[in-house]
Amino acid sequence: MNFNLGGSISLELFNLEHASQLTILAIQTDQEIYTLKTAEHSNWLERGIHIVDELGLVLLPKNYPHNINLPDDNPDDAL
Description:
single chain, 1 helix, mainly beta, two-stranded antiparallel ribbon
């Protein structure tokens, strides 16, 4: 799955089951693995592989911050 991080940054979302292959790819491309997390209506990226509140994994450059806030889900959209 691909999603837009904002602006011109588009990322591919990987399943947790692909963590070992993604770790190899991160080393080969000199990038960091981030976990796309969600809790209730909040969304964010957190550096590293985490299984709690995990939606998927993405690769980002190493100079990005540890946590990246993403737009919150609008609960009215679900109605």
